[in-house]
Amino acid sequence: MTDHPAPAPTPAPDLFTWEFAADPYPAYAWLREHAPVHRTTLPSGVEAWLVTRYADAKQALADQRLSKNPAHHDEPAHAKGKTGIPGERKAELMTHLLNIDPPDHTRLRRLVSKAFTPRRVAESAPRVRELTGQLIDQFAAKGSADLIHEFAFPLPIYAICELLGVPREDQDDFRDWAGMMIRHQGGPRGGVARSVKKMRGYLADLIHRKREALPAEPAPGEDLISGLIRASDHGEHLTENEAAAMAFILLFAGFETTVNLIGNGTYALLTHPDQRTRLQDSLAAGETGLLETGVEELLRYDGPVELATWRFATQRLAIGGQDIAPGDPVLVVLAAADRDPERFADPDALDLSRRDNQHLGYGHGIHYCLGAPLARLEGQTALATLLTRLPDLRLAVEPDDLRWRGGLIMRGLRTLPVEFTPS
Ligand code: HEM
């Protein structure tokens, strides 16, 4: 490969078809080689630049001339509100981290980082393990399951509810609201909007109640919402609205991503028997090293986030030699960058012990995933427990019969039917 795109021998592949959703990687390989910064019309009618090479992607993710604020989007009237950014439709959600730039982003991220610490995540490990075991208990005797609905979907929602401090008796409501959000994506908006409203209303009320009852001193094991209320920086606190928007974005950003990490990851292991056996053997020997590098590799190989969230040029700039005009939307294709042969040796191979694996699955720069420690904990716990409890786990259908969600930002399976010896 050269620095400049080679002349294209065939026309650009069709993007956003069902075939593309099932396996976008050949199309991404074509784009990386022939049109690494590619202008395309998205299914919504919005025109955007797709950035597919690793080096360009990394640079774009850190480029402060690319704003996250949709107000910079110079969108045509027919495409108004179709970028699928929640903040675009609901002004009250505008204060969340993925829609704002410095200095607001810096202030909010600093405050939330004081509450959402790696230590708080580590403290939730025993509960995540317990939840994982309980979910498997519910289907282990059947000998078959749909791993998306019965496992990958409920685990993250319960885990984040526990971390936030949502009382257990209310957690099934969250499961229902989240289910509505994931099932109807790209479909009718009414049900999704109602679920978002109920979730936000609930969180605002919970924050208010927790604030009223907050003890003067933090107690060990204090929940994340109490931590968010308490967090202060130079005497500044989050307002109740900001805390509610923050709790909501933690749920929103940490839910479907983790469902897909578990779903895509399990699927990749079931279709790479040699890698799966290596992992099972290492788990049986009580080792965790391969599990840790393995989950990173699964993120690189077929990660949950296909395209990083939107960015908009605030001024004229060049990415990979391509001129980008002010107001133009830019989508960084993490899934394409993470298979770039310029960066990764044998990029289409799954190698659970891969070293030097600086993938972009969690993004890069100031918006780098805040929930990465929690996602790692959930991904490692889910995969290790599944393979240990159900050692002969196998797909119940042919890979070609699986359906992928055709979402723009996320990559994930609709269902993952499996079979195993009942236990
Ligand atoms: C940001 C991926 C899980 C919370 C991001 C970004 C990516 C990402 C790529 C950057 C987006 C961009 O630059 O446009 C993932 C993946 C996950 C995961 C692959 C699971 C495997 C989580 C979890 C949480 C979370 C569990 C929280 C509970 C966030 C937040 C941001 C973010 C709050 C915004 C950070 C900011 O703008 O400063 N994530 N995420 N994520 N993620 Fe995650």
TrEMBL record:
<dbReference type="GO" id="GO:0016705">
    <property type="term" value="F:oxidoreductase activity, acting on paired donors, with incorporation or reduction of molecular oxygen"/>
</dbReference>
<dbReference type="GO" id="GO:0004497">
    <property type="term" value="F:monooxygenase activity"/>
</dbReference>
<dbReference type="GO" id="GO:0005506">
    <property type="term" value="F:iron ion binding"/>
</dbReference>
<keyword id="KW-0479">Metal-binding</keyword>
<keyword id="KW-0349">Heme</keyword>
<keyword id="KW-0560">Oxidoreductase</keyword>
<keyword id="KW-0408">Iron</keyword>
<dbReference type="GO" id="GO:0020037">
    <property type="term" value="F:heme binding"/>
</dbReference>
<dbReference type="InterPro" id="IPR002397">
    <property type="entry name" value="Cyt_P450_B"/>
</dbReference>
<feature type="region of interest" description="Disordered">
    <location>
        <begin position="67"/>
        <end position="86"/>
    </location>
</feature>
<keyword id="KW-0503">Monooxygenase</keyword>
<dbReference type="InterPro" id="IPR036396">
    <property type="entry name" value="Cyt_P450_sf"/>
</dbReference>
<dbReference type="Pfam" id="PF00067">
    <property type="entry name" value="p450"/>
</dbReference>
<dbReference type="InterPro" id="IPR001128">
    <property type="entry name" value="Cyt_P450"/>
</dbReference>
<comment type="similarity">
    <text>Belongs to the cytochrome P450 family.</text>
</comment>
<protein>
    <submittedName>
        <fullName>Cytochrome P450</fullName>
    </submittedName>
</protein>
